Amino acid sequence: MRDMQISTTPNPAPVPDERLAEILAAPGFGTHFTDHMVTVEWTPEQGWHDARVTPYGPLSMDPATAVLHYAQEIFEGMKAYRHDDGSVWTFRPEENAERMVRSSQRLALPVLPTEDFVAAVDALVAVDERWVPDATGEKSLYLRPFMFASEVFLGVRPAQHVTFMVIASPAGAYFKGGVQPVSLWLTEEYTRAGRGGMGAAKTGGNYASSLVAQQEAIAHGCDQVVFLDAEHGRYVEELGGMNLYFVHRDGHISTPATGTILEGITRASIIELAQKAGHQVEERRFSIDEWRDGVTSGEITEIFACGTAAVVTPVGALRWDGGEVPATTGGSPVALAVRQALVDLQYGRADDTFGWMHRVV
Question: Coiled-coil annotation: which residues (predicted)?
């Protein structure tokens, strides 16, 4: 659907200003939701149609709705940022749109054009602009576009009715007391994705399959889980929800190559920011042995991870059943510098020389 026309039905009972102020003072993450949501329908006959902003509320779903049985669904995660002048911006929304295209193709879902994805997100941010917090404490409005098989049908085939939606939730800083290193657990039993699988698609099944390994990590006193490749069981892929980087003694940075891991928007942005700061960045296979030996020898001076929620976080110790690689000892100067550069850009405190920011309001 080109030049998507989006109708708007205002919420007759929006959250009162006093209550909204309380929410924005301590929003948490994914706990409170804005007054409205976006919905767009798709069928083979009509394509994308009936785009609308309506009051936020529950969905009425038949028990035979296809997504409940075959998990044909995808989603995105992104944020809107309030700048000091009161304007509101999103960060590289067209990249999220294009990743959703790739996810759609892998999950046999219809492709929503990039411009329509951006228009739908903009429509929700514009109507719920008062929900975008100020930048204090790295607050933002978290945006969740998603698409699912909404056809009522129990046959195993691509759905003939699909729904795309966007909801939003104000978000506080990921780290309450400042950026802290995360401890990691190396799972030796579970893998996230294999060759030809859905690893590069942003689909709920990937996250569902990571939860038992994440439970294992928490049971061993760690914050996050590290997955190795399914074929050899020795190459580092990613964490449950974050990409990894390894800083070498000479300043160059290695990050696991994509293919079976999610192509993170933050990941790609950090590669460009690090290169601009003078770091050579290589995307390649990175083995768990290289991690262990590199930290031991001092060849690896710093390890960090990134994602939409945490932005950038230093990595501490890596543990597994019967072993441990300690944290690097030189602090996290590269991680913190890259993180600051990215956050300053997102909140309008630095010049957007990359053209990454998209003004909404």
Answer: none
CB 88 within 8 A of CB 157: no
Flag whether 358 is in a domain: no
- HEC string for 174-218: CCCCCCCCEEEEECCCCCCCCCCCCCCCCCHHHHHHHHHHHHHHH
Q: Which two tokens stand for residue 12?
A: 């007759």
Domain that holds residue 105: 7-173
Does residue 132 sit within a domain?
yes
pLDDT at 192 over 90: no
Return all residues near 345 (Cβ < 8 A) that are at least 6 apart. Answer: 352, 354, 356, 357
Counting the structural domains of the chain, the total is 2
- Give whichever of 140-149, 184-193, 320-329 has the largest mean pLDDT: 140-149
**Host H or E run for residue 267:** helix 265-276
> Which of 124, 142, 173 is the endpoint of a domain?
173
Sequence-ordered list of residues with C-beta below 8 angstroms from that of 242, at least 6 positions apart, any chain? 224, 264, 305, 306, 307, 310, 313
pTM above 0.90, yes or no: yes
From the list 316, 322, 325, 292, the residue with the least C-alpha distance to 188 is: 322
Residues 151 and 240 in one domain: no
